[in-house]
Design brief:
- It is a single chain.
- The chain contains five helices and no strands.
- It has 171 residues and is mainly α.
- It has a single domain (5-160), classed as Ferritin.
- Helix 1 (5-35) runs antiparallel to helix 3 (86-111).
- The structure holds MU-OXO-diiron.
- MU-OXO-diiron binds at residues 18, 21, 51, 54, 95, 98, 131.
Length: 171
């Protein structure tokens, strides 16, 4: 079934936003690598994998629904960080922006009575809930433990344990 052009274009742009997210989180990982916090860097490298997986899910969906996918230009991330909290706050703000973007796609699907796309986006709505919770938790953990060297060391070790699990969606 061919997808509505406006909705298709919005999902195509969402692919771009997800790949930009991966690009953005690469710069976060770079910051923490430079600081010697390899656990934090690992967390964001796993996040890069997650974002690329999100992009691939959307690409597969559009291809399966007769939409000609276009790879759009990826913007250069422009964030600069002065302390270890900055990337965590930027990540939370970015995830809220992505949630709003997913919600806009959902609104378009809803207006079209496109129940198939709504079902796809249900997964993204849930995923964004988890993304925001993770980002918010990282800020709280840093507030609680980040000012103490031992606490920061323990946090870094915890984030080192994060591993990538591919989402249970067809790509
Ligand atoms: Fe794909 Fe972090 O949203």
């Amino acid at each position: 079934m061919a997808i509505d052009a406006t909705l298709g274009n919005a999902l195509n742009e969402q692919i771009n936003k997800e790949i930009y997210s991966a690009y953005l989180y690469l710069t976060f990982a770079d910051y923490y690598e430079d600081r010697g916090l390899k656990g934090f860097a690992n967390w964001y490298m796993i996040q890069v994998e997650e974002e690329l997986a999100h992009a691939k899910i959307l690409r597969r969906y559009l291809l399966d629904n007769e939409y000609q996918v276009k790879m759009l230009a990826i913007a250069q991330p422009d964030k600069t960080f002065t302390n270890d909290m900055d990337p965590l706050i930027a990540a939370y703000e970015h995830e809220k922006y992505i949630t709003a973007s997913i919600n806009e796609c959902y609104t378009l699907a809803y207006e079209q009575h496109d129940f198939r796309t709504m079902q796809l986006l249900d997964w993204f709505v849930k995923e964004q809930g988890e993304e925001e919770t993770n980002a918010s938790d990282m800020i709280k953990n840093m507030e609680l433990f980040g000012n103490d060297a031992k606490g920061l060391f323990e946090l870094d070790r915890e984030y080192q344990a994060r591993a990538f699990t591919a989402p249970a969606m067809s790509m």
